[in-house]
C-alpha cells in the first residue's frame, strides 16, 4: 500500500512538475522579448510589473484564504471515509462562499490601489497596474477551489492542464499588447500602459483556466455529481461543514503566504528605507529592486514552484494515510518526499549557479557584478525558501496546524527584526540576508518537529541525500569542463551564444546526473517504475 501511495506521489508530481516547468518556462521566456520591447524603460517596467504582482499575489492569498489546500485535505479525508456525497456538499458550499470572497477582494484591491501604490514606492504609475490586476481576483478563488478539489482526488492532470492554458493565453495577450503599444503605434511609447496591459493579461488567463477546469469536470462526469443533493454518511450541518473547512484553511493561508509576505516586507521597506540610508535616487532604487525582486525572481521561481508541487501532491496522500492511522505509511511518505525534494533541488540549484552568467544573459543581457552576485545568492536561497514551507504543509496534513503556524511566525518575526539592520548594513543585499537567516531558523526548528510528529527515519533520507550530493558533484564538474570548452569557441557573450552555452552545458549536466543516478540504482530507488521508464528511454 505504501508503494502504491509513492507511485501516486510520483505520478502526481510528474503532472504538476511538468505543468510547472512548462508554465514557468513560458513565464520566464516571455521576458526576453518583453524586456527588449520595453527599452529604454526595461528595468523600471519590470520593477513596476513586479510591485503590482507582489500585491496581487498577496490578495490572491487573502481571497483564497487557504481554501484550495484545505479543500484538498477535506476532500481526501471524506473520500478516505468513503463519503463522496459529503465531499460534494462541501465543494458546493465553498464555491458559493469563494465567489462572494472574490467580489469583495476585487473591490477592496481596486479601491485601495492608490494607497498601496504609494506605500510600495511605485507612485502614480503603479495605480493602473494594480487596478487591472483586481479584475482577475473576481474569479481566482473559484478557480483555486476547483483545483483544490481535483488535488484532493489526486487527479493532477486537470490541475496541470488548467495552469498551462492560463499561462499560454496570458502570455499571448501580454506580448501582443506590448508589441502593439511599444513597436507598432506611432508617437510616444507609453511604457506604463504597456505594463498595465501586461497585467490585464492575468484576467484573460484566469478565464481560460476556468474554462479548462469546467471541461474536465464534464469529461470526468463529476459536474453533475457535485450538484447531486444526495445526503452523505457524515451527519453535519452545512454551516458547520463550511466553518470546519474555513478553520482548517487558516493555517494553510498563514504558512502558504510565507514567500509572498517576505516579498511584501522587502517591497514596502527597500525603496523607502534606502532613500534614508543612501544617496541613491528613487529611480535608481527601483532599478535595484528590479535586480533582486523581479529579474532574479522570474528565473528562480521556476525551481521553487516545481519543488512546491511536492506539497500539492503529498498533502492528500499523507492526509489519507494519517486519517486511516497508517503510521508506517505516513512516515514513509514524509521521508520519500524529502528524498524527492533533494533529488530535484540539489542538482537544479548547483546547475543554475554554475551557469548563472550565461543564464542571466539569455533573459536580461550581460550582468554586472551586482546583478550576478544577487542572482547566485537567490539561487541558493531557493532551498531554504521551499523546505520549511513543505514541512509546514505536511504538519498540517498530520493535524499539527498549530506547530506549522508557530514555526512560520518565528521565521516571519525574525525577518521583521532583521530587515532594517540588514538594509542599513548590506544595502541591496539586505533583503537576501534577512530572509535567509529567518528562513534558516524556521527550517531548523521545523525539521526537528516534523521528525517527532511523523516518526520518519532521517538516516534513510541522509543516506540518499549523500548519494545525490556525490552525483551532483560529478555533474557540476562536467558542466564546468563543458563551459570552459565552449568558452574557447564561443567568444561572444551575447544572448545567442549564452543560450547555446546553457543548452549544451545544462543538457550535459542533466544527462550526467540521470546517467549516474541510473547506474548507481538511485533513480529507481527514488522514482520506482518511473525511474525504470526513464532509464530505458535513455538506454542506460
Q: Could you give a short description of this structure?
A:
The chain has 540 residues and is mainly alpha-helical. 86% of the residues lie in helices and 0% in strands.
Describe this structure in words.
The radius of gyration is 23 Å and the shape is globular. Helix 1 packs antiparallel against helix 14, helix 3 packs across helix 5 (84-111) and helix 14 (282-323) packs parallel to helix 17 (369-397). The mean pLDDT is 82. Helices cover 86% and strands 0% of the residues. The chain has helices at residues 2-29, 31-37, 42-64, 67-80, 84-111, 113-120, 126-137, 140-152, 156-184, 191-219, 223-226, 238-256, 258-277, 282-323, 327-354, 356-364, 369-397, 401-426, 430-454, 458-489, 495-519, 522-527, 529-537. It is mainly alpha-helical and 540 residues long. The longest helix is centred in the middle third of the chain and has 42 residues, at 282-323.
Summarize the topology.
Layout: H1 2-29, H2 31-37, H3 42-64, H4 67-80, H5 84-111, H6 113-120, H7 126-137, H8 140-152, H9 156-184, H10 191-219, H11 223-226, H12 238-256, H13 258-277, H14 282-323, H15 327-354, H16 356-364, H17 369-397, H18 401-426, H19 430-454, H20 458-489, H21 495-519, H22 522-527, H23 529-537
Amino acid at each position: 500500500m505504501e508503494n502504491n501511495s509513492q507511485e501516486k506521489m510520483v505520478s502526481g508530481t510528474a503532472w504538476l512538475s511538468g505543468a510547472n516547468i512548462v508554465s514557468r518556462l513560458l513565464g520566464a521566456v516571455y521576458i526576453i522579448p518583453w524586456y527588449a520591447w520595453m527599452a529604454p524603460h526595461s528595468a523600471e517596467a519590470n520593477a513596476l510589473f513586479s510591485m503590482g504582482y507582489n500585491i496581487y499575489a498577496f490578495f490572491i492569498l487573502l481571497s483564497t484564504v487557504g481554501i484550495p489546500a484545505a479543500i484538498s485535505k477535506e476532500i481526501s479525508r471524506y473520500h478516505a471515509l468513503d463519503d463522496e456525497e459529503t465531499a460534494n456538499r462541501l465543494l458546493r458550499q465553498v464555491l458559493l462562499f469563494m465567489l462572494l470572497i472574490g467580489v469583495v477582494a476585487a473591490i477592496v484591491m481596486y479601491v485601495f490601489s492608490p494607497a498601496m501604490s504609494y506605500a510600495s514606492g511605485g507612485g502614480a504609475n503603479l495605480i493602473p497596474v494594480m487596478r487591472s490586476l483586481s479584475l482577475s481576483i473576481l474569479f481566482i478563488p473559484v478557480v483555486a477551489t476547483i483545483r483544490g478539489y481535483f488535488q484532493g482526488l489526486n487527479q493532477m492532470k486537470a490541475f496541470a492542464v488548467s495552469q498551462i492554458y492560463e499561462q499560454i493565453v496570458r502570455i499571448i495577450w501580454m506580448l501582443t499588447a506590448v508589441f502593439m503599444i511599444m513597436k507598432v503605434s506611432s508617437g510616444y511609447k507609453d511604457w506604463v500602459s504597456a505594463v498595465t496591459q501586461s497585467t490585464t493579461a492575468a484576467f484573460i488567463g484566469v478565464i481560460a483556466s476556468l474554462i479548462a477546469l469546467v471541461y474536465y469536470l464534464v469529461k470526468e462526469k463529476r459536474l453533475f455529481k457535485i450538484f447531486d443533493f444526495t445526503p452523505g454518511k457524515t451527519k453535519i450541518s452545512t454551516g458547520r461543514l463550511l466553518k470546519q473547512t474555513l478553520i482548517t484553511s487558516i493555517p494553510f493561508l498563514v504558512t502558504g503566504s510565507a514567500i509572498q509576505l517576505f516579498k511584501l516586507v522587502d517591497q514596502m521597506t527597500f525603496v523607502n528605507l534606502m532613500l534614508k540610508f543612501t544617496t541613491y535616487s528613487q529611480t535608481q532604487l527601483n532599478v535595484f529592486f528590479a535586480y533582486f525582486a523581479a529579474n532574479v525572481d522570474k528565473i528562480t521561481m521556476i525551481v521553487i514552484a516545481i519543488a512546491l508541487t511536492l506539497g500539492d501532491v503529498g498533502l492528500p496522500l499523507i492526509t489519507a494515510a494519517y486519517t486511516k492511522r497508517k503510521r508506517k505509511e505516513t512516515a514513509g511518505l514524509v521521508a520519500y518526499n524529502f528524498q524527492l525534494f533533494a533529488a530535484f533541488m540539489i542538482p537544479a540549484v548547483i546547475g543554475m549557479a554554475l551557469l548563472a552568467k550565461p543564464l542571466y544573459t539569455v533573459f536580461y543581457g550581460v550582468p554586472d557584478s551586482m546583478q550576478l552576485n544577487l542572482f547566485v545568492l537567490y539561487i541558493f536561497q531557493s532551498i531554504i525558501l521551499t523546505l520549511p514551507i513543505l514541512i509546514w504543509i505536511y504538519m498540517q496534513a498530520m493535524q499539527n496546524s498549530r506547530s506549522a503556524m508557530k514555526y512560520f511566525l518565528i521565521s516571519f518575526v525574525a525577518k521583521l527584526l532583521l530587515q532594517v539592520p540588514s538594509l542599513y548594513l548590506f544595502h541591496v543585499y539586505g533583503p537576501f540576508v534577512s530572509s535567509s537567516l529567518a528562513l534558516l531558523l524556521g527550517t531548523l526548528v521545523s525539521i526537528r518537529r516534523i521528525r517527532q510528529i511523523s516518526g520518519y527515519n532521517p538516516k534513510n533520507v541522509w543516506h540518499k541525500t549523500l548519494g545525490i550530493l556525490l552525483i551532483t558533484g560529478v555533474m557540476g564538474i562536467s558542466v564546468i569542463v563543458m563551459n570552459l570548452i565552449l568558452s574557447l569557441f564561443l567568444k561572444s557573450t551575447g544572448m545567442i551564444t549564452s543560450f547555446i552555452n546553457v543548452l549544451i552545458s545544462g543538457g550535459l549536466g542533466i544527462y550526467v546526473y540521470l546517467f549516474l543516478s541510473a547506474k548507481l540504482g538511485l533513480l529507481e530507488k527514488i522514482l520506482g517504475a518511473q525511474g525504470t521508464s526513464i532509464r530505458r528511454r535513455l538506454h542506460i
